[in-house]
Amino acid sequence: MELDRSVPVWPQVAADLRRRLDAGEWKPGERFPGTVTLAAEYGVTQSTVQKAVVALREEGRLRTVLGAGSYVLR
């Protein structure tokens, strides 16, 4: 995915992660990749990925367990 760096990046990352979730790349109950992994994949900072993960969590798509990571809800 090519990111448009002239606008905020985290919504673009969130949109792509949303698309990938909708495509079934990760199944409900499955552990979601960590911020380090996703940051390397997208070529962005961990804080950018964290903002995207928070957005997905607020939408009810992920659940985060402190110290254990994030898991797919739907």
UniProtKB/TrEMBL annotation:
SUPFAM superfamilies: Winged helix' DNA-binding domain. InterPro entries: Bact_HTH_transcr_reg, Tscrpt_reg_HTH_GntR, WH-like_DNA-bd_sf, WH_DNA-bd_sf. Keywords: DNA-binding, Transcription, Transcription regulation. Residues 7-74 form the HTH gntR-type domain. Coiled coil: none annotated. This is HTH gntR-type domain-containing protein. The keyword rRNA processing does not apply. PANTHER family: MANNOSYL-D-GLYCERATE TRANSPORT/METABOLISM SYSTEM REPRESSOR MNGR-RELATED, MANNOSYL-D-GLYCERATE TRANSPORT_METABOLISM SYSTEM REPRESSOR MNGR-RELATED. CDD domains: WHTH_GntR. It comes from Streptomyces thermospinosisporus.
